[in-house]
Amino acid sequence: MTGLFLLVVVLAWLVAVVFLTSWLMKRVSIKPKSVRMVVGLLIFILLLPLPVADEIIGGYQFRELCKQGAVLRIDAEKARGQTMKLVIEPSNEILPGTAITIYHSHLSFQNVNTGEEMVSYDTYVAKGGWFIRTLGISEGNAPITIGLPSCSPPLGAHGISKAYAFTLIDPIKGR
């Protein structure tokens, strides 16, 4: 049902863009018909993605953050055999200056004895833009123009500890 609603909204927007483009072209006096058609086509192309423009821009920002930050930073030899605790700071911080809401967390694996950070990575989660929030059809406000709205290294905290042979204590169990 949600998909059908979204399809109706997209079709309504398409019709609105056609009418708006037509209305604008009637107000502009461009003589050569070929130039008039090109201008009309450009206006149509510019108006069509307007409802998701913030997600398109935010998608580029999100992918760049993922490329730079969601990478594992580790000295494997130094980490091997160590006992570490996981500290998440910040946790789900909203990044300022992005076109859409992007949450950021920094995961730091710290030596329990020295507090030294030995392994770290960042995670990012993107939320939808104003269009998807206005429609209210997505419980988690997932973006509609971004494929995977989250990024982090593939193994996860416990997978990383196993892969690089260090002990990760569970803060709840204490071991």
What is the straight-line distance between the termini? 47 Å
| Strand fraction | 15-25%
- Reading the helices and strands in chain order gives HHHEHEEEEHEHE
User: In percent, how helical is the residue content?
Assistant: 40-55%
Task: Determine Rg (CA atoms, Å).
Answer: 24 Å
Helix/strand-derived category reads: alpha+beta
Q: Summarize model confidence as the mean pLDDT.
A: 90
How many strands, what sense, and barrel or not for the largest sheet? Answer: 7 strands, mixed
Let me know the number of strands: 7
Shape: elongated
Point out poorly predicted stretches.
Answer: none
Q: Helical segment tally?
A: 6
Describe the structure.
The structure is a single chain. By secondary structure, the chain is an alpha+beta fold. Helix content is 43%, strand content 19%. The chain is built from 6 helices and 7 strands, in the order H-H-H-E-H-E-E-E-E-H-E-H-E. Strands 1, 2, 3, 4, 5, 6 and 7 form a 7-stranded mixed β-sheet that branches. Strand 3 (93-94) and strand 4 (102-111) form a beta hairpin. Helix 1 packs antiparallel against helix 2 (33-47). The two termini are 47 Å apart.
